[in-house]
Amino acid sequence: MKHYIGRHEARNTAEFIELALGTPLELWLGEENETEEERAARLDAARDILADDPGMVDRTTRLAVETIGATMPDLLRLAPSTAHQPVIRPRSRRAPRTGVAA
């Protein structure tokens, strides 16, 4: 089976992700033995890319969830969703009122 992003063929998972993101994986994951200066430059470039394309995070998250759902659906069932659980707030206790009502 061949996988394409646009007109480009992805030969492996890393190429598929790079084509989907439009950036090399090393930009986001780093590289072994990178210096502090290289790391700082890489993170600056990543921040610039995200500033130019704020929707990238949502698209990447959606791609990851869809890919995991298609290849390892049991992994998505490991943690319960908290999206629809009610928020329970502790009750505040009021001090008893004293005095005369007007």
Give a topology summary.
Elements: E1 3-5, E2 8-10, H1 13-21, H2 25-29, H3 36-52, H4 56-71, H5 73-76
Antiparallel strand pairs: 1-2
Describe the structure.
By secondary structure, the protein is mainly α. The protein has one domain (3-76). The chain is 50% helix and 6% strand. The chain is built from 5 helices and 2 strands, in the order ββααααα. Strands 1-2 form a two-stranded antiparallel sheet. The longest helix has 17 residues, at 36-52. The N and C termini lie far apart (81 Å). The mean pLDDT is 78.
C-alpha termini separation: 81 Å
Biggest sheet record: 2 strands, antiparallel
What strand order characterises the main sheet?
Answer: 1-2
Tell me, briefly, the overall form.
Answer: extended
Brief account:
This protein has 5 helices and 2 strands; from the N terminus they run ββααααα. It has helices at 13-21, 25-29, 36-52, 56-71, 73-76; strands at residues 3-5, 8-10.
Descriptive tags:
102 residues, mainly alpha, 5 helices, 2 strands, 6% strand
